[in-house]
Design goal:
Blueprint: E1 2-6, H1 11-21, E2 27-32, H2 61-66, E3 70-73, H3 77-90, E4 93-96, H4 103-112, E5 117-120, H5 126-141, E6 147-154, H6 164-177, H7 181-184, E7 185-187, E8 201-207, E9 213-221, E10 224-232, H8 236-248, E11 255-257, H9 259-262
This protein binds nicotinamide-adenine-dinucleotide.
């Protein structure tokens, strides 16, 4: 299966390049960076210190998508929208790991998914995918005398907050409680906020150092507290998940899928 990496010189792009090179059944056929980027023209594999494969980094996204069966995109919301349209035009399956997507970006990606299979997930790891399922179960089992609070910690270069993973966990809690996330979410508190309202889902973000990503979901009840924690120590968990998602798109009908589908954890 032929794979292209979009944003190939980024932190996650490089990880994805390595994960594809490590998979004997996959062929790394293209890597895309934006026009003017210093990595353009460099060999994709030597970009991460591996022996050259004769595939230079390009800014021609349409040619890259035309050469690939699936593309893996970890870039920015604006770039991901443009890539989704281009992938749909090229008939190339897409894996979107980009976070910080607003409703308009999600709508554009969903539109592209009417024409090609798209797997989108703010966290591609197996552990977090399972954590989402656990959070939904626990939130649905415990009543709202158990307050749901989500805290995340990421490295200091992360540009969006709270993390897409934290928002995904909040959505899982809302689903378990049978409420709309938009009605329940309470982002970082500050000042004289008053007492906590039952049923709210709190989300707070910490930034510092080189933390790959940590998420804790608290169910804080009367006299007891349940905490579900995920700690990522290596970005390759996201790359391996993205590669598994790209492989999974093979022969798949157009549609918008999540890692729950890829890992077969869905209830359908
Ligand atoms: P990064 O800034 O290191 O990399 C982003 C790359 O995209 C850069 O190389 C940039 O030049 C490139 N890029 C941006 N616009 C482009 C365009 N129009 N054309 C081509 N290339 C373009 O960031 P990162 O740490 O690799 O994270 C990227 C995204 O992935 C973020 O949204 C992050 O939150 C998300 N992420 C998701 C997961 C997951 O499992 N889903 C895991 C880690 C990070």
């Amino acid at each position: 299966m032929r794979i292209a990496v979009l944003g190939c010189a980024g932190r996650m792009g490089r990880v994805n390049v390595g994960c594809i090179l490590d998979d004997a059944e996959l062929e790394l056929v293209a890597g895309v960076q934006r026009p003017g980027h210093e990595a353009l023209g460099r060999d994709l594999a030597s970009l991460i210190g591996r022996p050259a494969i004769g595939v230079p980094v390009t800014d021609d996204v349409n040619a890259a998508l035309a050469a690939a069966d699936a593309a893996i995109d970890f870039t920015t919301p604006e770039a991901s929208v443009a890539f989704a349209r281009a992938a749909a035009d090229a008939g190339t399956a897409l894996v979107v790991g980009t976070t910080g997507l607003e409703a308009e970006h999600e709508a554009a990606i969903a539109e592209a998914a009417r024409r090609v299979p798209v797997v989108a997930a703010p966290n591609m790891s197996r552990g977090v995918t399972l954590l989402n399922a656990l959070v939904e179960l626990v939130a649905g089992t415990l009543d709202d005398s158990f307050d749901v609070e989500i805290v995340e910690l990421h490295h200091k270069r992360k540009v969006d907050a709270p993390s897409g993973t934290a928002l995904g966990l909040a959505a899982a809690a809302a689903k378990g409680r049978g409420v709309r996330l938009a009605d329940a979410i309470e982002r970082a508190r500050d000042g004289l906020t008053g007492a906590r309202t039952a049923g709210r889902i709190g989300v707070a973000a910490l930034r510092g150092g080189d933390a790959v990503g940590e998420h804790t979901v608290y169910f804080a009840g009367p006299g007891e507290r349940l905490e579900l924690v995920h700690r990522a120590s290596d970005r390759s968990i996201f790359g391996r998940g993205a590669v598994a998602a790209a492989r999974w798109t093979r022969g798949r009908a157009p549609g918008l899928y999540s890692m729950v589908d890829v890992l077969g954890l869905g209830d359908g």
